[in-house]
Amino acid sequence: MKKALLFMVAFFAASMISNAQWTEQASGFTTASRGIKYVNVVDSSIVWATAYDGVTPTNYIQEFTKTANGGALWTPGVINGCSGMEPAMIFGMTATKAYVAMYRQTGSNPQGVYVTIDGGTTWTRQTTALFSNSASFPDCIHFFDANTGWAMGDPITGKFEMYTTTDGGTTWTAVPPANSPAPVSGEFGVVGYYSAVHDTLWFGTNKGRIYKSVNKGLNWTVAAIPVTGWNAKYVDVRFKDGSNGIAMDKNATSTGELVESHDGGTTWTAVTATGNVFTNDFAYLPGTANTYVTTGAATGFTGVTYSFDGGHNWTDMTATIGTQFLATRWYNSSIGWAGGFSTDATTGGMFRWTGGPLEPPVSQFSTPDTLLALGETATFTNESTGSPTTYAWTFQGGTPGSSALKNPPPITYNTSGRKNVTLVVTNDYGTNTQVKTGYIYVGGVGVNELGANTVTVFPNPVKDVMTVQANTNIKEIFVYNLAGQLVINRIVDAKTMTINTSVLSTGIYNLKAILENGTINKKIVIQ
């Protein structure tokens, strides 16, 4: 039998959570126990979601809800002309435009891709040829931009039924059967089970296999997961980039099994996970190093868990345990939503993450001023990720010798030698330290380092053209902005070099000159 999703019956004994990390929002449905089946996050404000009947899951409904203001107001609606069908998933483009893939459960209404351009007031089926076979069953739809999209359904006539469009769905073109491998006996897709990164798509099947396209759905390969028992799994997949992702067995109702790939899905290995891996839904948090979240709604396995290491170690969000969490998607580590069950039009049904960045901090910093003469200063740029809340800098031999600022003041070095720089960052999820040993070299006695007056830059401040002059041949010149980015690079091999700086914005820059007998750094000002 075709499997859509593992629905959970609503229970209200634990319908509220008291932890401020999640804020409950009203999904807007007037009927109680509307559960969130699928969530699509367009941006930090616009989200679309579909619903199901949490009391009687076989009561097929065509309801959706959307927000255009981050969830402060959710507006529900009905996908018109689709009675007897259910939305496999929804894909929002803007606050007014969205697509749904509709599959038939009863009746004779035509299944396929429906679109709204008026915020969900009216829905129109796109092209009568799409998913019109008696065996058709739409599963997934995705758009790469306003015009280019892909739709996928279960196999018909020996191939997965797939289409592409380049005009927003006005016309859809069938993917030729020769462009995708044949399914194995009894194989089908599962509604909403796919992942997309740039031009690459993956979708899982009920036979433990994952199909992949690197050209927006035009050509496909398939890989079986070589893990014992996975030939009978309902595979859902999430990739964080073109190489690294995890897949979950969604056939279970409690703790899910995971596999991982680091070559784009060509090969897979089992993950020995610690902690709870819930199976209602899971998501990668865009922009993070390796953060994933799972949600659970089965009795005894309810709540939210998270992993910072790609699914190997999971931590419960303690305050959520005992509350049913359904479909989830995230915009970044600070903005995400998870479905629940509604109580009435003004109570419950959706949760928004408000707990700050859900990722550990990673300490990173740089400076272009790594080679200094005595008395010169270095300007450091903080490049840490994970939104640290505290910073602790230590500058060996520098003045000042420490700082608690995100970006410290210029550091002056008055003693020669190689100097260490350390940055410790913290947030609610941990502490991380970066130590760069011997990162700053100061002075020049006997070590092929030159004094500050060996190279002259004029005029300084610079308007459109500057001249760099030295007592010996200049081999190469680098100019960095204060973020440490290289903005000018010139090969010279002369004692004098004229450089056009008109392309640079006004501000302070660092010039590094490589000479025949050493290196020198100088500050320049562009007017």
Describe this structure as you would to a colleague:
The chain is mostly beta strands. Among the domains are: 365-442, Immunoglobulins (Immunoglobulin-like, Sandwich); 452-526, Sandwich (Immunoglobulin-like). It contains no helices and 43 strands. The strands form 11 sheets. A 5-stranded mixed sheet has the order 30-38-37-33-35, with no helix packed on it. Strand 18 and strand 19 (245-249) form a beta hairpin. The radius of gyration is 29 Å and the shape is elongated.
Core attributes:
Immunoglobulin-like, elongated, 43 strands, five-stranded antiparallel β-sheet, single chain
The proportion of residues in beta strands is: over 45%
In this structure, how is the largest beta sheet organized? 5 strands, mixed
Cα end-to-end separation: 71 Å
How many strand units?
A: 43
The parts where pLDDT drops under 50 for at least 5 residues are: 12-19, 445-449
Instruction: Determine the CATH superfamily of the domain at 365-442.
Output: Immunoglobulins
Strand order of the largest sheet: 30-38-37-33-35
Helix content: under 10%
CATH topology type of the domain at 365-442 = Immunoglobulin-like
Content-based structural category: mainly beta
Q: Mind telling me the C-alpha Rg? A: 29 Å
| Mean pLDDT metric | 91
Query: What is the count of helical runs?
Result: 0
CATH architecture of the domain at 365-442: Sandwich
Shape: elongated
CATH domain class of the domain at 365-442: Mainly Beta
